[in-house]
Amino acid sequence: MRRPRYTAPSFALALGLLLHVAPADAQDKAAAYKARCDQGDSQACDDLGVLYHEGAEVPQDLAMALSLFKKACEGGSPGGCHNLGVIYTQGPAALQAPVKGDLAYEKACRLNYMSSCANLGINYEFGKRKPKNIKKAIEFYNKACQGKEPLACNNLGILYLRGAQVPRDEDKGLRYLAAACEGGFAQSCQEVAKRHFNQDDAKAAYFHRLGCNAGSADDCSDLGFLYRNGRGVQQDLARAEALYQEACAAGSRYGCYNLAVLSIDGPDTPDNNARILQLLDPTCEAGDQDACVKLAGLHLLGRVKLREDAQALDLLQRACNLGQANGCYNLAVIYDEGNLRPRDLAQALALYKKACDAGSGSACFNLGITYDAAQDVPRDAKVAARYFERACNHGHDGACNNLGRRFETGDGVPADLKRAAELYEAACDRGLAVSCANLGNLYEQGRGVPADKARAWTLHDKACQGGHTASCKR
């Protein structure tokens, strides 16, 4: 299952036309708006301008829309001034008048129209039609953010997180981004959730939920990951699947990948395997190397059918070339076992090392086994111990057990019974039965830990329940 993948936060670069939803009886409304506009109702002039801009039940006429927005602004409508500013700065080239647009934004901002304040902040921050002036940008952003404009809060948050033009202040930056997320600005939610992930998963789930509700497909996928693993929320596989489906349907390749992984855990049936292929194939084609590696592995296992074996090898090689650890690891296994390719130990070792360097605990573990076994290469206990340590650091429980054994016996490392007990305990807590048995032996003998027969019996019982048959006979 793929953990959430986060990208760097990005600035939002402008707010567009304030569009009102045209009512079903827009034609009648247009006549009513015109009558009220002619009588000096500036809001009606703005509403009529929106209808002409959108061509909603009246012929689209941008020049007429511009004229109406100008009249609305002159009459004191803040929305009219904002819309006038948008037409002058973002409209068709023939209608653009940037200086007039900024004047319209400034009037709207003075009238507490926060979207215009945010756009002025953008102009000053990025030098759009004005000299760059970060102090003025922050002034306008602050006003807009205090007025609940989430885009301005987002841009303020990024300024303080990056610390490029203002003193870096992560706490302040996160507060602004949280305000933007809670105001419905989806792209802020991902960054706030990232900062809480692994530290406070309940908060991460809260912000991913807000992002998902605001339309962020990747937030839906990341929330699904938390439900899948019971992190910050009660584990709920059905909810996770529904979120992955929502994310995938909305275009998140992470959602499609995670949905495929859930299906892989399901039955090995033609219908389910066809679904897996349908999910992984376009995700791989879109450049997702995890999906390519998974697809190749399933082909080699016979669960999905690619055009030929060479295609699976090509997918693994491409992923490995891009630094994807599992791509290199799976290729290494193929060369190590002589499966689909003649056995080539030198190539296998090179690929294991590349995969280990890229973070594959399994690759580091296999290297440790290779240097420990003295079958294909001369035995080197020190090198084996180093690889077991790296694999253990990547979360490989078998490697933690093997490293513990070396600290217990002093094989390749200085003997350290306390360290051995710590390693056995960590692997035992994660369910590795042999480590529970090894730790039980230490408690039984009082080596590295205080002698404790009751604790030893409990550990051997746990090892027995986990399938370690020797512990069942004690």
Walk me through the topology.
Elements: H1 26-38, H2 42-54, H3 62-74, H4 78-90, H5 98-110, H6 114-126, H7 134-146, H8 150-162, H9 170-182, H10 186-196, H11 201-213, H12 217-229, H13 237-249, H14 253-264, H15 270-285, H16 289-301, H17 309-321, H18 325-337, H19 345-357, H20 361-373, H21 381-393, H22 397-409, H23 417-429, H24 433-445, H25 453-465, H26 469-472
Helix pairs in contact: 1-2, 2-3, 3-4, 4-5, 5-6, 6-7, 7-8, 8-9, 9-10, 10-11, 11-12, 12-13, 12-14, 13-14, 14-15, 15-16, 16-17, 17-18, 18-19, 19-20, 20-21, 21-22, 22-23, 23-24, 24-25
Radius of gyration, CA atoms, in whole angstroms: 31 Å
CATH architecture name of the domain at 186-265: Alpha Horseshoe
DSSP summary, beta strand count: 0
- H/E element order: HHHHHHHHHHHHHHHHHHHHHHHHHH
Which structural class do the helices and strands define? mainly alpha
CATH superfamily of the domain at 186-265: Tetratricopeptide repeat domain
Structure annotation, total helices = 26
What does the main sheet amount to? none
CATH class (first level) name of the domain at 186-265: Mainly Alpha
Helix content: 55-70%
